[in-house]
């Protein structure tokens, strides 16, 4: 990765960083464990990554369990990824 657009050479985007967490969870848990993926995402978000979407940050930081976090966001905020629902 050559860098550019605010990114240093070798620096991964937030999407890539999250994909790595999914892959690591799949390997370590021998399959999809949504609670584990969510915990990994929460730790990543708490480390203040260089770039994180507002919706993603809200869902990961609202303190709710994985199966309630997005629902709570959409009940109070009708925006998603820059669009209005």
UniProtKB/TrEMBL annotation:
GO terms for molecular function: hydrolase activity; metal ion binding. Binds 2 magnesium ions per subunit. The keyword rRNA processing does not apply. Its cofactor is Mg(2+). Keywords: Hydrolase, Magnesium, Metal-binding. The keyword Transmembrane helix does not apply. InterPro entries: Ribosyl_crysJ1, Ribosyl_crysJ1_sf. Mg(2+) binds at residues 13-15. Pfam families: ADP_ribosyl_GH. This is ADP-ribosylglycohydrolase. The lineage of its organism: Bacteria, Bacillati, Actinomycetota, Actinomycetes, Kitasatosporales.
């Amino acid at each position: 990765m050559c860098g550019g657009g605010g990114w240093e050479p070798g620096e991964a985007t937030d999407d890539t960083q999250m994909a790595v967490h999914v892959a690591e969870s799949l390997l370590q848990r021998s399959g999809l464990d949504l609670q584990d993926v969510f915990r990994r995402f929460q730790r990543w978000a708490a480390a203040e990554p260089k770039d994180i979407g507002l919706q993603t940050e809200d869902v990961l930081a609202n303190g709710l369990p994985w199966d309630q976090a997005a629902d709570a966001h959409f009940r109070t905020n009708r925006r998603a990824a820059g669009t209005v629902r």
